[in-house]
Amino acid sequence: MLGSIDKGLLVTEAMGMHTANPISGEFSIGVSGLWVEGGKALFPIKEAVISGSLLDFFGKVEAVGDDIRFYGSIGSPCLLFSETDISA
Q1: Which residue, among 71, 73, 72, 7, has the nearest Cα to 34 in the 3D structure?
Q2: Largest CB tally within 10 Å, which of 17, 18, 19, 36?
Q3: CB 15 within 8 A of CB 27
Q4: Is 25 helix (H, G, I), strand (E, B) or coil?
Q5: Angle CA(33)–CA(85)–CA(51) in degrees, nearest 5?
Q6: What's the pTM value of the predicted model, to 2 decimals?
Q7: Left if phi > 0, otherwise alpha if psi is -120 to 50, otherwise beta: which for 31?
Q8: In this structure, what DSSP letter does residue 17 have?
Q9: 3-state helix vs strand vs coil in the chain, percent to 5
Q10: pLDDT tens, 51-63?
């Protein structure tokens, strides 16, 4: 999936997802990861913010990986999203 990213952020850590508004679905979370261009990870990114609406966000899923990983009892595969609001 990484090879298909022209320009974007590979998120390796998300902080504060529990702060999403359960009524509106609006969220703003801190993320860290790697900046990707031409399918290659170029440099680390720390203290960036991704924000938006959960319904809109999950409507932007372009690909789902086959690499499910578990964190305790919760698991998720890699997800590739189209354009998303990122502030650094």
Answers
A1: 7
A2: 36
A3: no
A4: coil
A5: 85
A6: 0.82
A7: beta
A8: G
A9: 10, 60, 30
A10: 999 999 999 999 9
